[in-house]
Amino acid sequence: MTVRFRPSLVLTIATAALFLLLVSLGVWQLERLKWKLQLIETVGSHLAAKPVSLDQALRRGADAQYRRVTLYGRFENGKEAYVFATDDAGAPVYHVIVPFITGRGALLVDRGIVLPMLLNQRTRTAGVVRGPAQITGVWRTPDPPGFFTPAPDKVHRVWYARDVASIAKADRVTLLAPVLVEADSQPNAGGWPKGGQTRVVFRNEHLQYAMTWFALAAGLIGVYLAYHVSTGRLRFRSASPDPRS
Predict the structure, then answer these.
(1) Taking a C-beta distance cutoff of 8 angstroms, is the pair 74, 133 a contact?
(2) Which of 29, 34, 71, 109 has the smallest count of CB within 10 Å of its CB?
(3) Any alpha helices (H) in the chain, and if so which ranges?
(4) How many CA atoms lie within 13 A of 88 on its CB side?
């Protein structure tokens, strides 16, 4: 079989550039897949490990993320803040954020969620922890507010993102670290707030994305070849039979 190929220069250059772009995007998604799998493994191991002390968490820095930590101190209950959210069924709830004063300084603790009718602290006095306390929770660095996040209602002390810097500033509290400690599921008296609200769900569709980019790259080559065949620029001819045979 003989092949005759007269490629279109402009189309070939454009196709090559687009092909390289599509392949690069596929490779990038594979790199993201590797990173995401490592992240999931790291978070899982941190959550499964024994709780660390406050000093250990502070020394670990970024490596303290998603580790459980045990704190000793007291709550400043008069400075509760509330972060609007929804539960698994889509109903409105509020995270109760309270400064916790340790021997080293202050941190913000997410004590868990309450229903809207329990937003006022006087409706759940049994769950207000007074005096020295020990808590265990997950050390988290919350995501910053997004561009479309509503501004906080500081009059009613309601935020729409767990903006630790803004909450601490409103309370005139200097934090040891810009983190939230999410209280574990240990029940509070009266049942509220409900702790144990840490959600670890990582969307991982990078392999599908990579396969999509690679498939588009392969399809592009198919279209490129089909164009040249349809215009006669790419021809396949069987070899002529030998007349002496």
Answers:
(1) yes
(2) 34
(3) 9-48, 54-60, 164-171, 206-230
(4) 4
* Burial group, residue 39, by CB count within 10 angstroms (0-12, 13-18, 19+): middle
d(CA 211, CA 50): 39
Q: Distance between alpha carbon 105 and the CA centroid of its chain, in Å? A: 28
Query: Which domain does 119 fall in, by range?
Result: 67-191
Q: Is the pLDDT of residue 223 over 60?
A: yes
Q: Let me know if residue 219 belongs to a domain.
A: yes
Does the pTM exceed 0.85? no
Predicted confidence at residue 79, as pLDDT, reads: 93
11-28 b/e (C-beta count within 10 Å ≥ 16 → b): eeeebeeebeebbebbee
Positive or negative torsion for Cα 59, 61, 66, 72: positive
Q: Are residues 98 and 182 in the same domain?
A: yes
95, 113 contact by CB (below 8 A): yes
Instruction: Judge if 119 and 154 occupy the same domain.
Output: yes
The pLDDT of 121-128, averaged and rounded, is 92
Between strands 92-102 and 68-75, the pairing is antiparallel
Same-domain check for residues 101 and 159? yes
Question: Same structural domain for residues 166 and 117?
Answer: yes
Overall domain count for the chain: 2
Of 16-20, 22-26, 95-99, 168-172, where does mean pLDDT reach its minimum? 168-172
Are residues 217 and 171 part of one domain? no
Considering the domain architecture, whether residues 187 and 211 belong to the same structural domain is answered as no
